[in-house]
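User: Here's a protein and a ligand (nicotinamide-adenine-dinucleotide). What would the complex look like?
Assistant: Let me lay out the input and then the predicted complex.
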Amino acid sequence: MSLETLHSAQQAAVQAMDIDPAELRELQTVKTYSFMLKTTTGLEVPAYRIHTGAIEGAGGKGGIRFDGKADRERAVSLGSELSAEMFAKNALWGVRRNGAKGIICADPRLPESEMTHLTKQYAQQMHDAGLGDYRRDSPAGDIGSNGLADTYALEMRRLGEPYWQASITGKSVELGGSPARPAATARGAYAVERSHRRMTQDDSLAYDVATQGWGNVGGWRTYFASQDHDSNVTTISDQYGALYSDGVPMDIREEYIHELADNRDFKGDKMAELSTRLKRDQGLEVEYVTHAKDPYVVFKRSGDLFVPAALADSINEKTAPMLVENNVRVVEEAANGPTKKKAHDYLVEHGVWVLPDVLVNGGGVNASMDELYDNVAAVDHNLPPSSKETLERSIVNGATSAHERTMKMAEKLGTKDLRVAAVAVSLAQLGVSAGLSMDPSFHDFAIHDAA
Ligand code: NAD
């Protein structure tokens, strides 16, 4: 994953804001909790929880992922990088939490019973380390662990944690999860893009939209674009291949998302099935090209807006020029780390707006924090949960505010590089939340009552 892209933006932001890198380094602490889990057959599985932050007394926030390729060294280094990225995302979205990441060194394709067994032990060890209290930590599902939040929460209940529901987010609604969570990341991404079009006054024309990835994020993102008169979904790709419609908008209906895109139980080729449904329901003929035939169709048919919502590093030296040749105007990074450093610079130099991942895909963090507040308020004040509409509005407001502050920062720094501007806003937040020294004029970019 292109953490080099983020690091380089951080360096540029630190320089542009005249921040002392040594002070930032000293302020930013990393704490690693090491656990040892066992499979049902007695194999040892190392696991970690890593916190990166600078806000005294603030708990951690970030996912737990299963990683079959990780040994101890890779797990600690990956976990540290990802928790640092979470820290930047939290700060930008006004979430007063340090970054955190959990890594369990086991293959996410293990049988469900084994995953449950490991998750319960992970919860036990988090509890033993004092991290079962939401004030100290509150993880969420991530790669391989989505769907295991309920197991984790119920284990915390068994262990007697008084705020067991708030000990993890991404739970089912029955256990206090947010009904806005499934579409949260895509909703935030969509709100960032709408804000961007408003602020760049580029909302006069309907954008042709291409998404790479048609899972949870890519699926809901195409749904939102389809609802919007200013966007035409014309290209979609996933792991099998790409569909394109030669400019005719595809109507991506909600049922397609529930039954295909955001349905982990669907086995088979989603693109082939979507193509069949578009013909059956809408009479729309689309081209379907498998990756075996041409893996670059989604870049060659990128439209005005390209949304990477699948893989890290997919925009690289080979694919970035394809986007530019196709006159892409905006790249909206819904995936984590989809753009390599050189490709990022190439796009910015060629006048493409790159909306960076820390800004675009924080809707899930926003939804997670709302879930946590609701869980705590239920215990402390016996309050009912927020309505779905309130939770959805909160994501849109959080996304719009983060984007507007990023654009204003870009203007102040005199840059079109929104990754640098977004990181600068995160640093401005640290000026307010953690006392990092900087010109006080940067404090205007922070949220002063960050939650
Ligand atoms: P997902 O597993 O639901 O979907 C991933 C999609 O990528 C699938 O449709 C898969 O077919 C597709 N894909 C795999 N290889 C491909 C290829 N070669 N070409 C095109 N598509 C390919 O995952 P998701 O939850 O939608 O996450 C997508 C990205 O967004 C990841 O980078 C993830 O880290 C990031 N993200 C997700 C969330 C969230 O809330 N789900 C939050 C923040 C960031």
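Summary: The CA atoms of residues 58 and 96 lie 7 Å apart.
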